[in-house]
């Protein structure tokens, strides 16, 4: 162990190849992970904030907010289902908005809500909204009146909330009636009748299983398609595909890490064969030598990850606010652990070569 | 030259690992390029392959056809603009539909699928403006409830003769033609007459006070260029006119997807450059004593350098073959997201990888060129 550490300290240049290569790979991994998280969190904030167990859509909507309509009759039917504690509507309209003093339009999601979500105050007055902090990047300030959609419906921002966006558009949280006004003025081809909402959120009675309650609601109403909260988050267009695609890229990149570390340590072991032979001759065991190799692999991975993380942090700071790059602490930790494990796996490929070194033969080679 | 190949043969593990690393990197680059092109193609193929040279968006939509609506007053104002030859409505919307294939599925939820409808003028002065340009089979819709479908989805119940039912309780639309690369939002896509589109919109929204076109499809008058027409149309308040190419390039998502995936591809190329360059350099340093000896017994600098270049080329070529084989093997599973194996793309990436390999091996080549034969006669350590 000590020998491995001393070698790293005294001849760091020898390890620079692996460190530099792994640094780029670590940066790539964090960048991809940041994009994946940014896309998911930016799309689903409005749903994750909900304190609801079940999301009820109309059965032919294919779980799309924009295609779903829950009428007052359906709402009453859902309320009557056993295990339903409370219900509230949730409706969304995606539009552009004119921000006072700005030339660029802001992308907004006008969200009409009834049940109070986590981190968002109760609905403000008519024509007023809680805005997501993302909109600050478009120049939106407290007290600003935004002109929303082609009909330029005025909405005044009364304060800011965090992580509440929908489909990467800045959330504007309003009363359901204000949402309806926005929808009907700006989307005459898809008006919302009084009492209608797009989706019904259901809070289950204590002890109720959400999946079972969803099935019970659908069986009872026969005109709804109900999802648990996690299912609703994943049902947003593209969310599942994004995750599958990015995860497969991440997995392949981790494989590259394994191969590169294996290649590096294979070369290093080859170079050190005489040295290892000498060490074995004076009593070092294969196990001791190998622990040193693993330690070096972990330190290389740690240094590379730290530098790669710094690069991504710098990139994130310099990137335009619209680039959905968001690296979570849990993601950083997981990425580091996987990178370190991959480095260890890569170094393990030298195990056979290290254990096969014959002291006598190795000393002979060194002569 | 045989030296290069013989060394590879004798140090299999080292070179196999290097080939594997390059192969994985080539695979990742091919995958990213395929993903970028596939996603972009499937996201906005319908916009790219419709016939109108100019499309006019509502400024509020920020160049997103899904969020754009052109009201009647603006439609009239656009028609009056100088340089406009023909102008027609083009609507886009996603619908819930069913067909024979979907209805055969077991669960009620799976029996419904998404489809994007593009409604364009089939009759009248603007007939054919906004129609798909890549018809591969059948014919264009001649009237109501006929459609040209995206060729990619023919096996999903969107082939010629298949009937698509607009849910809930809407019209039955018959597929009369197929066109290539006309998907939108990665969904099955149908080009139908404006009347069919309007009727489908009213199924979901019976109380709609008006069904507005998403964009206006415009063709310049004889002798008027697309650029001049776009400039003239821009004078109408509240609209953003774009040429077809600009509408595609500036579609929301296209720029950010390209930017993100190009960054990833750039990082992968840098990684490949370093993997090849640094590892070839290590190998060269490891065998520098042998190379010096070879120089001392008469081997030419050029011979040794060419040996190194040949070795790099062989290793990279093997990596390209490994990466290409992985891509070919996995691509059938990725058809749903538009990623496919493209031999031409592999050749381009392969050629690029070889150049990257040569650039990467430059450091090692320079080191070989600097080897002095005299050093072979000096005990190791004396020259340090």
TrEMBL record, chain A:
<keyword id="KW-1003">Cell membrane</keyword>
<dbReference type="Pfam" id="PF02687">
    <property type="entry name" value="FtsX"/>
</dbReference>
<feature type="transmembrane region" description="Helical">
    <location>
        <begin position="289"/>
        <end position="313"/>
    </location>
</feature>
<keyword id="KW-0812">Transmembrane</keyword>
<keyword id="KW-1133">Transmembrane helix</keyword>
<keyword id="KW-0472">Membrane</keyword>
<feature type="domain" description="ABC3 transporter permease C-terminal">
    <location>
        <begin position="248"/>
        <end position="359"/>
    </location>
</feature>
<dbReference type="InterPro" id="IPR003838">
    <property type="entry name" value="ABC3_permease_C"/>
</dbReference>
<feature type="transmembrane region" description="Helical">
    <location>
        <begin position="333"/>
        <end position="351"/>
    </location>
</feature>
<keyword id="KW-0813">Transport</keyword>
<dbReference type="InterPro" id="IPR051125">
    <property type="entry name" value="ABC-4/HrtB_transporter"/>
</dbReference>
<protein>
    <submittedName>
        <fullName>Unannotated protein</fullName>
    </submittedName>
</protein>
<dbReference type="GO" id="GO:0005886">
    <property type="term" value="C:plasma membrane"/>
</dbReference>
<feature type="transmembrane region" description="Helical">
    <location>
        <begin position="249"/>
        <end position="268"/>
    </location>
</feature>
TrEMBL record, chain B:
<keyword id="KW-0812">Transmembrane</keyword>
<dbReference type="GO" id="GO:0005886">
    <property type="term" value="C:plasma membrane"/>
</dbReference>
<keyword id="KW-1003">Cell membrane</keyword>
<keyword id="KW-1133">Transmembrane helix</keyword>
<feature type="transmembrane region" description="Helical">
    <location>
        <begin position="304"/>
        <end position="331"/>
    </location>
</feature>
<dbReference type="InterPro" id="IPR003838">
    <property type="entry name" value="ABC3_permease_C"/>
</dbReference>
<protein>
    <submittedName>
        <fullName>Unannotated protein</fullName>
    </submittedName>
</protein>
<feature type="transmembrane region" description="Helical">
    <location>
        <begin position="343"/>
        <end position="366"/>
    </location>
</feature>
<feature type="transmembrane region" description="Helical">
    <location>
        <begin position="264"/>
        <end position="283"/>
    </location>
</feature>
<dbReference type="InterPro" id="IPR051125">
    <property type="entry name" value="ABC-4/HrtB_transporter"/>
</dbReference>
<keyword id="KW-0472">Membrane</keyword>
<feature type="domain" description="ABC3 transporter permease C-terminal">
    <location>
        <begin position="263"/>
        <end position="373"/>
    </location>
</feature>
<dbReference type="Pfam" id="PF02687">
    <property type="entry name" value="FtsX"/>
</dbReference>
<feature type="transmembrane region" description="Helical">
    <location>
        <begin position="15"/>
        <end position="35"/>
    </location>
</feature>
<keyword id="KW-0813">Transport</keyword>
């Amino acid at each position: 162990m000590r020998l491995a550490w001393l070698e790293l300290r005294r001849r760091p240049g020898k390890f620079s190849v692996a460190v530099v290569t792994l640094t780029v790979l670590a940066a790539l991994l964090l960048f991809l992970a940041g994009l994946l998280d940014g896309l998911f969190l930016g799309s689903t904030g409005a749903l994750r904030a909900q304190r609801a167990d079940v999301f009820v859509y109309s059965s032919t909507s294919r779980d799309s907010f924009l295609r779903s309509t829950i009428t007052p009759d359906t709402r009453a039917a859902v309320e009557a289902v056993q295990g339903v504690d409370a219900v509230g509507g949730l409706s969304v309209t995606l539009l552009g908005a004119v921000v006072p003093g700005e030339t660029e339009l802001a992308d907004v999601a006008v969200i009409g809500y009834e049940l109070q979500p986590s981190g968002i105050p109760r609905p403000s007055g008519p024509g007023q909204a809680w805005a997501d902090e993302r909109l600050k990047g478009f120049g939106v300030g407290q007290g600003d009146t935004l002109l929303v959609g082609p009909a330029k419906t005025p909405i005044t921002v009364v304060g800011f909330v965090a992580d509440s966006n929908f489909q990467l558009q800045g959330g504007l949280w309003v009363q359901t009636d204000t949402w309806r006004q926005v929808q009907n003025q700006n989307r005459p081809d898809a008006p919302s009748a009084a009492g209608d909402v797009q989706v019904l959120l259901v809070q289950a009675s204590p002890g109720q299983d959400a999946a079972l309650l969803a099935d019970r609601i659908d069986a009872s109403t026969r005109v709804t398609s109900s999802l648990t909260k996690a299912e609703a988050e994943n049902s947003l267009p593209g969310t599942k595909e994004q995750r599958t695609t990015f995860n497969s890229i991440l997995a392949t990149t981790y494989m590259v890490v394994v191969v590169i570390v294996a290649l590096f340590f294979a070369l290093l072991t080859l170079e050190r064969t005489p040295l290892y032979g000498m060490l074995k001759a004076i009593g070092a065991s294969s196990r001791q030598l190998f622990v040193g190799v693993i330690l070096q692999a972990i330190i290389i991975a740690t240094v590379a990850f730290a530098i790669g993380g710094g690069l991504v942090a710098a990139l994130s700071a310099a990137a335009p606010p619209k680039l959905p790059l968001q690296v979570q602490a849990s993601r950083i930790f997981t990425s580091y652990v996987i990178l370190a494990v991959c480095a260890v796996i890569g170094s393990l490929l030298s195990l056979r070569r290290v254990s096969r070194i014959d002291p006598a033969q190795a000393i002979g080679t060194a002569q | 030259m045989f030296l290069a190949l013989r060394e590879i043969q004798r140090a299999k593990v080292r070179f196999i690992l290097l080939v594997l690393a390059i192969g994985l990197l080539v695979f990742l680059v091919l995958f990213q390029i395929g993903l970028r092109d596939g996603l972009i193609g499937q996201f906005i193929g319908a916009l790219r392959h419709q016939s109108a040279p100019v499309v006019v968006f509502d400024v509020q939509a920020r160049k997103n056809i899904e969020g754009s609506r052109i009201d009647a007053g603006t439609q009239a104002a656009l028609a009056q603009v100088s340089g406009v030859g023909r102008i027609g409505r083009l609507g886009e919307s996603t619908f819930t539909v069913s067909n024979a294939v979907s209805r055969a599925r077991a669960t009620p939820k799976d029996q419904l699928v998404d489809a994007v409808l593009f409604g364009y003028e089939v009759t009248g002065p603007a007939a054919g403006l906004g129609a798909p340009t890549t018809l591969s089979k059948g014919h264009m819709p001649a009237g109501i409830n006929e459609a040209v479908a995206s060729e990619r989805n023919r096996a999903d119940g969107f082939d010629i003769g298949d009937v698509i039912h607009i849910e809930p309780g809407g019209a039955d639309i018959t597929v009369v033609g197929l066109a290539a690369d006309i998907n939108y939002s990665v969904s099955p896509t149908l080009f139908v007459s404006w009347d069919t589109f309007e009727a489908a919109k009213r199924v979901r929204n019976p109380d709609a006070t008006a069904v507005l076109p998403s964009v206006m499809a415009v063709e310049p008058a004889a002798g008027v260029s697309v650029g001049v027409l776009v400039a003239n149309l821009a004078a109408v308040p509240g609209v953003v006119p774009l040429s077809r190419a600009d509408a595609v390039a500036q579609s929301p998502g296209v720029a950010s997807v390209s930017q993100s995936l190009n960054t990833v591809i750039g990082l992968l190329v840098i990684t490949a450059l370093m993997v090849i360059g640094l590892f070839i350099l290590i190998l060269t340093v490891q065998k520098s004593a042998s190379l010096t000896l070879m120089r001392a017994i008469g081997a030419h600098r050029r011979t040794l350098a060419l040996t190194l270049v040949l070795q790099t080329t062989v290793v990279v070529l093997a990596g390209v073959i490994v990466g290409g084989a992985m891509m070919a093997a996995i691509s059938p599973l990725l058809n749903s997201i538009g990623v496919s194996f493209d031999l031409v793309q592999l050749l381009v990436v392969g050629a690029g990888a070889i150049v990257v390999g040569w650039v990467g091996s430059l450091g090692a080549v320079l080191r070989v060129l600097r080897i002095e034969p005299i050093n072979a006669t000096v005990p190791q350590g004396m020259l340090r």
